[in-house]
Design a protein that fits this description.
The chain is of the alpha/beta class. The protein is 35% helix and 19% strand. Residues 1-165 form the Glycosyltransferase 2-like domain.
């Protein structure tokens, strides 16, 4: 658990961990050079309970602190958590049991409860709802290019997987999403406990809201690298793809693939004002003109709320199979 200026929340997080049932564990809490009372709180918890190990480092950011904690951890399984979240009492036991029972799994998560204001943060809450539908290895694998399918504070992984495939790396991208994409590319199966085991809070200063490496463009940059390699191995019509959507935002995000040698056969839209246009030499066609299954690979890039499900229904109604004929990318 990396900790930085979290004096108001870290006690609650630690209490939730120390209340875990039916699990043998240690809590490795790293103070990342805080200038509030975080270090004092961690030291007091470590003094009172031998299960808490407290480390201090100079401020270097959440990646450095998380990696320091992981390196110091001694367990066969390593779980992540943020200092402003709360574990429900059976989290560690349930996730460890899933890893025990399924030796092929390298990483597991769980369903999470959104701990913010659903009206004020509707987008974040809907994202949590979406992640909670992705429980199986297949669902996580086929939806990994939409968004981060396993919330980082909820994960538990095998140390052997970490040693084989590497940990968090620093860059201008969300390091947790990059780790998941890298492990998925290597073929690491992932699943979730079908239980709500973590309260994922949404404070206004959460890094995913405030740091540039967690903005939307950063997510698309890192996913594009991995998506392009996935297409080269799985698209039988490589390098040609058919892009569903032709709006400015869709084109901006899809265009990142061009630098990887991907070619756009056409854009497809439902807006009659766009149909018939040409964008950089690529025609905009009516969505009903998408090629038949087996004749072209489709990439839905429309990110407006509800559009992904509607497009999937449209494609599958025509016989398209997720992962074989199309993969969602927004």
């Amino acid at each position: 658990m990396p900790c930085y200026n979290c004096g108001e929340t870290v006690g609650r997080a630690l209490d939730s961990l120390l209340a875990q049932r039916n699990a043998e564990f240690e809590v490795v809490a790293v103070d990342d050079g805080s200038d509030d009372d975080t270090a004092g709180i961690l030291a007091e918890y470590a003094r009172r309970d031998s299960r808490v190990r407290f480390l201090q480092i100079e401020h270097g950011g959440v990646i450095r602190a998380a990696n320091a904690a992981i390196q110091a951890a001694r367990g066969e399984y390593v779980a992540r958590m943020d200092a402003d979240d709360v574990c429900l009492p059976d989290r560690l036991a349930a996730q460890a049991r899933l890893l025990d029972d399924c030796p092929d799994l390298g990483l597991v998560g769980c369903r999470v409860r959104f701990g913010g204001d659903r009206r004020r943060s509707r987008g974040y809450a809907l994202y949590v709802d979406w992640t909670n539908t992705l429980l199986t290895p297949e669902a996580i694998r086929l939806n990994r290019f939409v968004e981060f399918p396993v919330p980082n504070p909820s994960i538990m992984f095998r140390r052997t997987a970490l040693e084989t495939y590497g940990g968090y790396v620093r860059g201008d991208f969300p390091e947790d999403y990059e780790l998941l994409l890298r492990w998925q590319e290597a073929g690491v199966p992932m699943a979730k406990a079908d239980e709500e085991l973590l309260i994922w809070n949404d404070p206004p200063d959460r890094l995913s809201r405030t740091h540039a490496r967690y903005d939307v463009d950063a997510f698309y940059r890192v996913k594009t690298d991995y998506l392009a390699r996935w297409l080269s191995r799985n698209n039988p019509h490589h390098p040609a793809v058919h892009i569903l959507g032709s709006g400015r935002t869709t084109r901006k995000r899809a265009d990142l693939l061009l630098d990887h040698g991907i070619e756009f056969a056409a854009y497809y839209d439902v807006d009659p004002k766009k149909i018939g246009n040409t964008v950089n030499g690529v025609p905009v066609l009516d969505r009903n003109d998408v090629p038949a299954p087996g004749e072209g690979f489709c990439l839905p890039y429309v990110a407006s709320r509800g559009a992904r499900a509607e497009i999937a229904e449209f494609l599958e109604g025509r016989g398209f199979v997720l992962g074989r004929d199309y993969i969602p990318a927004a």
